[in-house]
Design brief:
649 residues; two-stranded antiparallel sheet; extended; alpha+beta; 6-stranded antiparallel β-sheet
């Protein structure tokens, strides 16, 4: 038995000894009442080691089925045969194996269990045994709140008799033959008061003013100063800080990523306001748990539910369903733990895995509480009044309608151009002579030309037919026009590469260029240049070279040809230069088969749009840019890390 429970053993032993004698004397053929006699005995003596949550030797004695199934040593009993039951062997003899903790069972207690087994081990179907907690419902903490009468010693001075707290203190002092300290000097008193209420000392001027007021009327001066400090906003700042510690308020998510939560501060301000407003505690608790309901259309109240999501949060996620379920269980456990400790002063979370060992809280109670929090989602939420939401929706609707109208106008004109050009596609589009671009290897040959530099100009990528977008290149090779072609684009051959690249966000040394253009000319295929900015890759040779062929790819080894990070040019130009100022096109993707219908339509637009239509489209694009800027310029409604709520799947 745990140390906290051993004090109950003598009383239990006496009770069962008396019960055993009474029952055995009355009728040896009658089975002891299981619920009243056997169950309390087993719960007191056996379930510390052999319950569902512990199962030492893989044995639980919580249900009749558990007894019959048994553990490592087989069934615990044979109904109707106590002599052949393994449990009886373990609890009898001069040095019994069980229980491991506490006093062995008495002969009378063993006799009761034997008699119960011999009578068939009758066990009510719906009864499950539970290990008793160290404190039952008679524990002082679970009693109704009472208003006791403070002591009033006969010799208590009048000044000490005014406050109930002082009366308790004075009674304790007199019980230990101690005397109260003399009253504090006014300068000491004002410092204590400031530190207690605001956490900061008074300024010399404030202390001097209090001393002067004290000398005129001590009682009035002190009361006035207390009222002054309680009315100060610093009161809520000091004492609200302690509450924020209680509810595990933090401005980061914790765990390995520990991302900063830069929009949970409204909850901090809410707590400070609540202390300064002397908000009733029951209302304060209700707002923490259901501020979105009781504070509907009151943003200053609604933010209180940030309490629920203010703890640690594993935002990495996991694709494994079991791991994801474990992460979710841990998230809800944090909410339950905070709720139990902050509002009840209890470690409810101990019942996550088994009935509580010290408080009368069942494991079922834990999961009832969890059910209440299943709807909590760890995320931001718009927190604004109904009027603010209505105004924002109206502005957004008008701006979005303008954008939609212009987008429709552009789409109609472009479709007309596409339909018209499609009818004469052979006249407008270059003849197809090459296959589609291929991420694993795309090759272009051209008339030999002497150049000092070459560049790849992506016009689109293979994920987006309308914009340049980013591309990735694992290797860009440039071969000379000679009998034994050389790759003059290799860094080992003196070439250099330039091009905007993705920043290394997770590196202290951004100069490491983990995604830089040099990866496209290193002769290796494991890493690649990831473009950013204008997405142009420029390669300068060690000296002017006569070249006639390029080969480039994003996944030459064919490891993950369809993976998103292997983005490749969809349409492109290859250009060369002898001075790196003037560029001449030597190859492009127009002679290749388009990737799909969307890319073909973009070609029809590129080759079939007339000059006046280009001007019209440019005007629409200009108006569209302004309309989108207007839409994005609408100030978003404030969001707070206060969670959202939806029924679980």
């Amino acid at each position: 038995m745990p140390a906290a429970s051993t004090k109950f053993i003598p009383a239990i032993a006496v009770f069962f000894a008396l019960a055993a004698g009474s029952i055995l004397a009355a009728d040896s053929a009658t089975s002891p009442d299981f619920a009243k006699v056997i169950a309390p005995l087993l719960e007191a003596k056996c379930l510390e080691c052999h319950s569902d949550g512990i199962r030492k030797a893989e044995l639980s004695l919580a249900t009749r089925a558990d007894w019959l199934t048994g553990g490592d040593d087989g069934p615990a009993m044979i109904a109707g045969d106590s002599a052949g039951s393994h449990l009886i062997e373990k609890i009898t003899g001069p040095d019994p194996d069980m229980p491991k903790n506490g006093e062995p069972l008495s002969e009378a207690e063993v006799a009761l269990i034997k008699k119960w087994i011999d009578a068939g081990a009758v066990w009510p179907d719906d009864l499950v045994l539970r290990e008793p907690s160290a404190a039952d419902k008679s524990w002082w903490a679970y009693q109704p709140i009472a208003i006791p009468e403070p002591p009033r010693p006969d010799d208590i001075p009048a000044a000490w008799a005014e406050s109930p707290i002082d009366r308790y203190i004075y009674a304790k002092l007199t019980a230990t033959d101690s005397s109260p300290n003399p009253p504090a000097a006014p300068r000491n008193l004002i410092r204590r008061l400031y530190y207690d209420v605001t956490g900061l000392p008074p300024t010399p001027e404030q202390a001097d003013a209090f001393v002067k007021a004290w000398l005129k009327n001590a009682g009035t001066a002190y009361a006035a100063e207390v009222d002054h400090l309680l009315a100060s906003p610093h009161y809520g700042e000091r004492w609200g800080r302690h509450w924020l510690d209680v509810v595990r308020f933090g401005e980061s998510r914790g765990l390995e990523r520990n991302l900063i939560i830069d929009n949970i501060w409204p909850f901090r301000d809410y707590v400070i306001r609540s202390f300064n407003d002397d908000k009733p505690f029951d209302q304060f608790i209700t707002e923490h748990l259901a501020g979105d309901v009781v504070g509907n259309d009151q943003p200053e109240i609604e933010v209180a539910t940030a309490f629920l999501v203010g703890g640690i949060f594993d935002d990495v996620g996991n694709q494994d369903p079991k791991a994801a379920a474990q992460i979710r269980a841990n998230t809800l456990d944090d909410i339950i733990t905070a709720t139990g400790s902050a509002f009840l002063g209890m470690t409810i979370n101990c019942a996550r895995c088994h009935d509580h060992k010290f408080d009368p809280i069942l494991q079922a109670d834990y999961y009832r509480l969890r059910a209440a929090f299943e709807s909590v989602q760890m995320t931001d939420r718009v927190v604004a009044s109904a009027a603010e939401k209505k105004l924002h929706a109206a502005k957004s609707k008008a701006a979005r309608a303008k954008v939609t109208a212009l987008e429709t106008k552009k789409k109609v004109l472009e479709q007309a151009i596409i339909d018209r050009t499609e009818k004469k596609a052979e006249e407008f589009l270059p003849k197809i002579t090459h296959p589609k671009v291929d991420r694993t290897m795309t090759e272009d040959e051209f008339e030999p030309v002497t150049a000092k530099a070459i560049r790849l100009v992506p016009l689109t990528n293979d994920r987006n037919s309308k914009g340049p977008g980013g591309v990735t290149i694992d290797e860009f090779e440039v071969f000379t026009a000679e009998a034994a072609p050389r790759n003059v684009a290799l860094a080992d051959n003196g070439a250099t590469a330039e091009g905007g690249s993705r920043a290394v966000e997770d590196s202290i040394d951004n100069a490491s260029n983990a995604y830089g253009p040099g990866l496209a000319i290193d002769g290796k295929f494991g890493r690649r240049w990831i473009s950013s900015g204008n997405h142009i890759l420029t390669i300068t040779f060690a000296k002017p070279e006569k070249i006639s062929r390029v080969v480039f790819s994003s996944d030459r080894p064919k490891d993950l040809p369809e993976h998103g990070k292997m983005i490749f040019p969809g349409e492109y130009r290859i250009e060369v230069s002898s001075d790196e100022k003037t560029w001449t096109e030597v190859a492009n993707s127009w002679r290749r088969e388009p990737l799909n219908k969307l890319y073909r339509e973009q070609r029809l637009l590129s080759f079939g749009t007339q000059q006046d239509e280009q001007q019209t489209l440019a005007g629409i694009d200009n108006d569209l840019a302004k309309a989108r800027a207007e839409l994005s310029g609408i100030k978003p409604l404030p969001t707070v890390w206060a969670g959202t709520f939806k029924q679980p799947d």
